[in-house]
Amino acid sequence: MIEVLFYLSIMVLILLLVVQAVLLVGESRDRIAGSQTIERGAVLAMDRLNYFAREGYGSDWEEGDKELVFYLDDQGESKVRFYLEDDDRLYIDYLEEQHPLIPSDLTVDSFEVEELSTDVSRAVRIYLDLVYQGSQEQVSREFQTTVVLRNSYVE
Amino acid sequence: MNNAIDHLKNSTTVAKHSYNREAGWLLVEVLIGVAIFSVVAAFLLASFYSYLEYGTAGVDRLQASYLLQEGVEQSRLVRDRDWELVPEGDEGQQFRLKEQDGKWDIQELDGEEEVIEKGAAEFVRTVWVEDVCRHNESKEIVSCSEPLEPNEFLDQDTRLLTVEVEWDGLWGGSEQQASFYLHNMFSEEE
What we know:
The structure holds two protein chains of two kinds. By secondary structure, chain A is α+β, with helices and mostly antiparallel strands.
């Protein structure tokens, strides 16, 4: 009887380990897929934001509309616009064309901009939080950077 | 008759011994089996954990690289505010970027690190400042001698800054560094 209990407990232990491993694999698959999708999306969005910030002569941030504009000449005629569509999709509006900036399986949890200035230069501080919704687990990452608008020195 | 009974007794004793010996062997086999299973399971779990770490490490590096870039750009903003705010070189002295009323400063660390929390991840950003020396005639940057050679001078309008971002990454701590010269381009002497 003791032997039966002993073997039974070992069997139960092994079964529990196997179930735990299966659950872990499912969650981890989401974590890896989420991290890699976020990485791709962040590179797309942040690098584009960085590029146009460096090119910018000035910027304009609309807190209410979550809309960031960089002026690409000193007259303010040429510009690029980054904005949220449906509250969670980041879009770019450049040369009269609008494109999503992040893959369709990602959403934006937060898009905030802080405008900084000195007597001789301007800069923007950008916060972008991205979310990936997996089948079992949600993955989110927060990015932030600051870029000095190189052409703002011209003024 | 007695012989037959003795024979029966003896054979029962042998069967009992044989049963006990078999039970003992079975237990040893099970224990060996469990031990092998544990070793294999531990190895598989460790491999899987590594795979998980590798799969998610890229996004940590990306977060760190944008924070590193931010450190470089904020140092520029400090220079743009006032060159006097960029500390003089001090080997071994660690500095940090600090925001006060929307303005950035480079301050001595004094035990209070700049910790940036981004969700579950935590990044520590540190700045080092070094003096820059130049050759008297060619104006090329040379390493500063102690004391300065007669053909060298300390460039008061240039500093060498190094920004470092550290975080808990793959197999312990990870870090990224960027070194760059910061020049007082608004100096009235130019």
